[in-house]
């Protein structure tokens, strides 16, 4: 008998019909001889409606009360899923985050899990019941309801899997797992059967938003293998796990694309200690998400610093730079919009040389100019013109042998 | 400094604008120098939507899960009211029933309050905060969310008032308190400034559904005076309290009317022990609400038993009577629909004689026939034809001096 934690997102439980479908899947998992904990999100749309209600009574709703409000979304779903399972002849019991012993700090709306006392959950499982657990929420030491912020339900599932030492954690979503690239961009993209935590993290930070990095990091830290799969069909998904030697035979696991970026370049930055730090501190204070950073010596004693920001944060970035560039005595700030970031990710590149060269060659052959280059141990990222982004993704996807053969496509 | 418990029903918090209005009232009460606990219901319509959701996933939703579902209604309101107060510069904190220490038995969907540990509520009040408490809900010893059934939010307010020894409990609703009769029937009806628990109970059981009897009984048991008043204006309401000698100067406090009744008569019931018991047991098992019961000797050794039931339960009553009348060997069952029940209620009738005579006279003078009569120490009830009900109510209201003078009307 295996102990499985499943997680169903808001789309999977978005209507009462879908809830019945999810209930059936959960019950089938139990009837196959497993103990099952199912973590569920708020029905899609519900959270936004609650946020609208809050906005109607307050410009700046108290975070503590926001959590009380938002937590009703998942509480509604756990009750409905449990009822649906009971209706089908199963025995399910619902748990709010607090009831399940998920204790967090008091950082309302973005609380961090500190500890899980899963005793009552385990008792119910041992009594033959299915546990339906509200995702995204916990309780603080003060007994207040807290929520975990973005991607919170995934985190609940992975943390609960770690707490009960589950044999498997399944993250059900509306896609068939993680793909080698976005199939809307690269029609020959394939599902990745297995991926390491680190690759998944690099993919997530490069635009493949199947899951928030936070949950993957948590899974990595506690060694919880998990599977990302579709709640609407029975297709196999993607297993995310510790890396093992076999994984290195694939050089590049996937390619990801992030659009709507802007490139900012600061010319003639005096090459004195503290210049770069002053720049990025000013951007941080303005809440600008800086991504790729590249620095080059431009002329004796001066550097050229380039970085990317999301296009809709460009104005904020330019604003933040005004006073700091004056203060450090640098040259003018240039910016370029219509930029895309293309990343190739794979732990295999650690043991294979020439990967960067292969990628740059392929782009050059296709006549695509590279603007910036940034690399990590398992990722090569370039920025290119957004107009050439799709073509670039297809070219890189093909050159690393990721294209599906005709029979697979 | 007084400690006040206020209760706002579903209509009073039915929209975000009304929530802001309620927030303002609560904050004003505090700014007048009081400590305030406000009990709020689910926004009107929300509970029905939740019930519809449950019905969509299950024919017979688990009661335990129904409570988890329904409790989200009040939880949403406490968050919104707290946010609205905080937005206005106040300091409010929300409490679910469980957080407020309202412990109940495990009779899900109709739980009974067993105990309230109001320590954390008191701490917040002493810290200068306003406590916004979810009505209608509590927590069982097993840590499960429970709900209190119909009128549960009133009960929460009165029970919390008893627990914290509040100076006053205010039940805000959509009417200006309790009236001498339904103003739609008797245009000269007036608001009753003060009424005893017992009178209120008799009014409630006779069709004046301002509050459920259960909450009034609880208030009586624990000696909690409370005021029923309107949340939409600042009019004075009705104070419900222990009776005191002054109250007896008014003979009849109010008149109430209950329509859509049916009268059932069983002829020739053998006058043997157990006959009546067999009849009413059978009706009880069929969940028929039997009201006025009148028994007369019809002929030597036989009785005629009459009683009223809500018209929509007549078929069930007739059905339940079939086998029992056969078994006890009684005569045929007759029934009459289109019946109304008119009651005159007042503790003053205990010390005034001739009250029944005055009422019957007035009805006779108006040419209205009385079908059945039933009395308690503080109530005289008659059944009459529904067609004459409005006229009968006006006549009785007038004869006991309840009509407003022209200047009051």
Give your account of this protein's structure.
Two copies of one chain form a homodimer. Chain A is α/β, with parallel strands linked by helices. Chain A folds into two domains: 3-174, 3-Layer(aba) Sandwich (Carbamate kinase), CATH 3.40.1160.10; 255-399, VC0802-like, CATH 3.30.2130.10. Chain A is 34% helix and 27% strand. The first copy, chain A, has eleven helices and 18 strands. Chain A has helices at residues 16-31, 46-57, 63-87, 119-126, 152-163, 197-205, 213-222, 275-285, 314-328, 355-365, 389-399; strands at 3-8, 35-40, 92-95, 102-104, 113-116, 130-134, 137-140, 145-147, 168-173, 194-196, 226-230, 238-241, 254-270, 293-299, 302-310, 333-345, 372-376, 379-385. Chain A has an eight-stranded mixed sheet, sandwiched between helices. Chain A has a six-stranded antiparallel sheet with strand order 14-15-13-16-18-17. In chain A, α1 (16-31) crosses α3 (63-87), α2 runs antiparallel to α3 and α8 (275-285) runs antiparallel to α9. Chain A is globular. The two termini of chain A are 36 Å apart. The model of chain A has no long low-confidence stretch (mean pLDDT 93). The interface between A and B is large, with 40 and 40 residues.
Largest interface by Cβ-Cβ < 8 Å: A-B, 40 and 40 residues
Rg of chain A: 24 Å
Main sheet strand line-up of chain A: 3-6-2-1-9-11-12-10
Shape of chain A: globular
- The CATH H-level superfamily of the largest domain in chain A is Acetylglutamate kinase-like
User: Share of helix among residues of chain A?
Assistant: 25-40%
Q: Total strand count of chain A, please?
A: 18
Q: So what's the oligomer here?
A: homodimer
CATH class category name of the largest domain in chain A: Alpha Beta
